[in-house]
Specification:
Elements lengths: L1 H23 L5 H21 L6 H28 L3 H10 L9 H9 L4 H25 L4 H9 L2 H14 L6 H26 L9 H25 L4 H12 L5 H8 L4 H30 L3
Helix pairs in contact: 1-5, 1-9, 2-8, 2-9, 2-12, 3-4, 3-6, 3-10, 3-11, 4-6, 5-6, 6-7, 10-11, 10-13, 11-13, 12-13
Length: about 300
């Protein structure tokens, strides 16, 4: 019950976005929200997360194990995407979206509900690792359909979040103190980023038509996200030397549903944002149905947390 209560605020902000778009229609410009989130609020979230806790072994290894699992599956998707989809944009979405979980908006509060507040440093750094994957791999696959390889790489290098992440790591590594008032401001911006992301999802969700949904795309993405990736994740965490507690946090982060950030990318690169929104909706529903099964798997392999 505590787990369900912890994610209720997440769904409430999605509903707010849906109601806003339904009520004000053309007065709501969703791309303006996307730009605000992607180029301003998310860099604040990245900096806040990477400077929240000191760097130690578990802090470093937890995102590395997470990325091992994700990157091992992305090569599988690249190989088989052409056999599954004939449409190039569907292939792009399948590769770029399937592995990007909602590690911030759902992962952080769910981590607190299941593992306590001591999980926040690990869920935060895994969220940053997830953003690195988005900025490097997802954006490349989205951009390559619209730009040349050179322009795709250039579009990645222009993103402020990437440079903010490097700066934040340097600040943390050299123990540069951050004034408490600045830290409070960063925290406000970080939580604002999570809220605006959920509202963006609700805005795009309002335009999704169930009868015209791309079910083949949505179900294949959910198959990867909720079955293949968790299976691979179990293998990697069992092979690691992380404590059972940290390993449990990493595995749960691999199991959470698709990120709302996927809608941002699809909108920025004009790559079927409504199909991406529908895929996120299907993924979120499947995750809700599998949540207690996931908890059982974690306890079976890693013990009580």
């Amino acid at each position: 019950m505590q787990t369900l209560i912890s994610v209720l605020p997440v769904y409430s902000f999605i509903v707010i976005g849906l109601i806003l778009k339904k009520s004000f229609k053309e007065k709501i410009d969703e791309k303006s929200y996307v730009i605000l989130s992607f180029y301003f609020l998310q860099p604040i979230l990245i900096f806040w997360g990477l400077t929240k806790s000191p760097i130690d072994y578990a802090f470093v290894m937890s995102p590395i194990i997470y990325l091992y699992a994700v990157l091992s599956v992305v090569f599988f998707l690249i190989i088989f995407s052409k056999k599954i989809f004939t449409d190039s944009k569907d292939r792009t979405i399948f590769i770029a979206v399937s592995l990007v979980g909602n590690t911030g908006n759902i992962g952080v509060p769910l981590g607190i509900a299941l593992f306590g507040e001591q999980s926040v440093p690990y869920t935060s750094i895994i969220n940053i690792a997830n953003m690195f994957f988005i900025y490097i791999f997802s954006i490349y696959f989205f951009a390559k359909d619209s730009f040349t390889l050179k322009k795709s790489i250039y579009s990645i290098l222009k993103l402020p979040g990437l440079w903010v992440a490097f700066f934040a790591i340097a600040i943390n590594y050299f123990n540069v103190p951050i004034h408490k008032d600045i830290s409070r401001t960063l925290e406000m911006g970080a939580y604002a980023s999570m809220v605006i992301q959920l509202i963006i999802f609700g805005v795009y969700l309002s335009e999704v038509k169930i009868r015209t949904m791309n079910w083949k795309l949505s179900l294949n993405i959910s198959l990867v996200k909720h079955f293949i990736l968790p299976f691979v994740g179990v293998f990697f965490v069992l092979q690691s030397d992380l404590s059972s507690y940290v390993a449990s946090v990493v595995l749960m982060q691999l199991m959470i549903p698709l990120a709302v950030n996927n809608v941002n990318l699809a909108a920025l690169y004009n790559c079927k944002p409504y199909d991406v929104t529908a895929s996120i909706l299907v993924s979120t529903i499947i995750f809700s149905l599998l949540l207690y099964f996931y908890i059982f798997i974690i306890k079976y392999f890693l013990g009580d947390f």
